[in-house]
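This section describes the prediction task in plain terms. A model, or a person checking by hand, is given the sequence of a single protein chain and must write out its three-dimensional structure as a string of tokens. No templates, partner chains or ligands are provided. The sample shown here is typical of the held-out split.
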Amino acid sequence: MNNYKFFVFVGFFMLACSVISCKKYLDTVPDDFLTPSQYYQTEGELQNALTGIYDVLGSANVYQNTYWATLSSSNDIDYWRNNRTETTNPLYYNQIPSDALVTGTWNALYQGINRANELLAAVDESPVDTSIKTPVKAQAQFLRGYFYFLLVSNWGAIPLRLQPTRSVDDANLAKSSIADVYAQVLKDMTEAETFLPTLEEAGSDAGVRVIKTVAEGILARVCLTMAGEPLKDLSKFVDAKNWASKVISSGKHSLNPDYRQIFINHSADILEPKESMWEVGFYITSTNANEWGNLGSFNGIQFSNIDYGYCYGTYGITKKFWDLVSAISPTDLRRDWNLSPFRLSGPSTGLTGISKVYLSQTTANIWARWPGKWRREFENYSPKIKYGTPANFPILRYADVLLMYAEAENELNGPTDSAYWAINQIRERAQGTGNRITGFIVENGGAGYTSAPTVTLNSPVLGNTILTSATVTNGQVSVVNMSNIINGYFTGQPTITFSGGGGDGAVASAILSPIDPSVADVPRSQSQSTFRQLVRDERAVELSQEALRKHDLIRWGILVETMKALSASIRSNASVLASYQFEAIPGDNVSSKDVFLPIPLTELTLNKALGGVNNPGY
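The expected answer:
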């Protein structure tokens, strides 16, 4: 997505000079650059400029890494398990105004805004046909609104720049109130929504470019955020419901029948815009390896094999996730997909000899499990690289739209039929389809076994998902045991083989029972408050690691109390969690100041209109 031309953006070059006080240069008119009025003359130039705006989403400080991995992590579900010694880091809620990660994301988002401002300031005068430039303008305007949404929800009151920044004076701008920034976000997004392409009109760009229903889904998110802390504009629940309803009633989106396949598609670089409505596109080729992302290489199953897929294993999932999803249903696919039941072993290179070593399910061991949402084994390119993956980052999924609808409807009218319908669609999908294994029949015990043979259960779909073992009596296999890890094969008939143990001839088959997805439905007759908590828990389970949980806790006004409770729980289990006590540090440190990040020191220094005043607590 880097195929835009840097020389288009004269304003960015001049702004960079202002950072180093290059006043003399700013007073000089360059004669070897195209000015904005000279550019945007062809469809290609408009598309290049638009691509430059989208490119910010995939930059290192936004969805490639920092925004999801640092600024949105460290909540009660996702945690950083790699470093116990840093004294200043947003992951530990001890960030400072000079923090490079905070500064980098702030700068990147304003860079995206300035690129959008440059295009919006010139597009109307472009001689390109209106049918071409109208959707380009709409996408640029929506993206400007989205960048401002990320800024205001993370920093609060901020400078609102709606014209290109081309001088030092342009960069000096006082804060606008939170309400005023949100008003601009709504203006940009709602105006853009009218002119954005539909799913069909977007063609092959659907999934990575903003379309009409994507705008409607994000508007639902914006309105839910406005209805919560700190604005608490409760009227926005109506708007949130209406925008989510537009997406649902459009009929253009649906849930993938298999929860796991969503993230396999991300890793395999397969677009699926019906469920995964808007993604940040990443890719890797032999000639262009700088457009990679970090899903699966940072937050995956730790492994040092470069050919299978190297993973640092720097992030984890808390036991709270395990508890929440187990309470929904012990056969919920999301439990063992997000919190992998196995670890990997094998050589550092090559694929021969790699095995999946299954972990026990004791409570103490849950903390030792690795996230499994994005798994490098499903990447379809070779050779793999150590540092990155082609997995796209999902900004908006249809499942989120359903949960936003359920939340808004409950707040307005209590849990109605439509609210139950929305949440239960997601719960039922998580049960899988087809048949579930409920046991085994030993058809022939064989002979000559002196010890228990190894039992291999081969799935037609995703490999061994059930831990099995055999019991030998009088030289024969008498029982095939099953540990309920995922407890199911969802299509086809599994095969069972026995090896080792000194004997042969054992034959067994699986007992299959049809899956009843409705076992996970939320029972009717819930109170409004109970249903509210059920929706919140469902969001934690369904959307873990997708850069939403921390911001949900903030808008619900429960960030501090939730993190403090997590810390207390960890501390109280010191005997079994001795190796994970450092995960209590974020909860120890968090305070009311952490609902917002500090305004970067460089911004306070350069933007004199801010008067050197930071957010409270910094």
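For orientation: The longest strand covers residues 435-447.
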